Amino acid sequence: MKTTIANATTILALSVLCAAPPAHAQDTRGNVFHRGDAIPWGEPNNGARYVALYGDMNTEGEAFVFRLEVQTGFEIRPHTHPVNEHLTVLSGRFFVQLGETMDKEDATAYGPGSYIVIAAGVPAYMWAEEEAVIQVHGVGAMTTEFITPGAPGEPRP
Predict the structure, then answer these.
(1) Which pTM does this prediction carry?
(2) How many CB atoms lie within 10 A of CB 48?
(3) In a domain, 17, yes or no
(4) What are the b/e assignments for 115-148, b being 16+ CB within 10 Å?
(5) For residues 90 and 152, is the Cβ–Cβ distance under 8 A?
(6) Domain that includes residue 16, residue range
(7) How many CB atoms lie within 10 A of CB 11?
(8) What does the pLDDT profile of the chain (157 residues) look like in tens digits?
(9) Residue 34 lies in a domain
(10) What total number of domains does the chain contain?
(11) Residue 10 phi/psi, 5° resolution?
C-alpha cells in the first residue's frame, strides 16, 4: 500500500494533537528515558507508524524529536519547512533529494546511520522502497508547505 504525504501529515497531526501527553519516562529534572524495546509506537495507519519522543514540534522555539516508521512505497512530495529539518536514518534505506520537482532518478539513498539536514525554506522530497525508520528532530514550530498545494487527497488547511 502506498502512503502519501497526505496520510503521513494526518498521522503526525493526529498523533501530536489528539494523543495524551508524550509517552515517555521523565524524571523531575526533565530527563527522558526510552528503552529501545519499549518505544511507545502508535498503531499503524496507512502503512506508517509515528511516535513523539520529546517536545512538541508545533510549539515555537521548543526542541522536538519524533520517529517515523514507513513502509515500502511511502513518499513525501516536494515541500518546505520554516525550520531546519534534521533526519537520521535508523534502519532501512530512505531516499532524499532537494528540488521542486520529484525526480526519483536523481535522488540519493541513505542507509542506517545517515544524517541529513535540510535547511529552512529549501524544497525537498523523500520516499522509501523498503521499510525504514527515520528519526526527525529540530526546533519548532515545524509546519509543512507543499510546492504544489491542494493536490488530490491532500488535507486542506
Answers:
(1) 0.77
(2) 20
(3) yes
(4) ebebeeeebbbbbbeeebbbbbbbbbbbeeebbe
(5) no
(6) 5-23+40-146
(7) 21
(8) 444 444 444 334 333 333 333 444 666 677 888 888 889 898 887 778 999 999 999 999 999 999 999 999 999 999 999 999 999 999 999 999 999 999 999 889 999 999 999 999 999 999 999 999 999 999 999 999 999 876 544 443 3
(9) no
(10) 1
(11) -60, -45
Assigned domain for 9 exists: yes
Q: Which residue has the cell 494533537?
A: 17
Strands in 92-156 per DSSP E: 94-98, 108-110, 115-118, 124-127, 132-139, 145-146
Q: What is the CATH number of the domain that holds 95?
A: 2.60.120.10
In a domain? residue 154? no
**Residue 152 is placed in which grid cell?**
488530490
CB 67 within 8 A of CB 39: yes
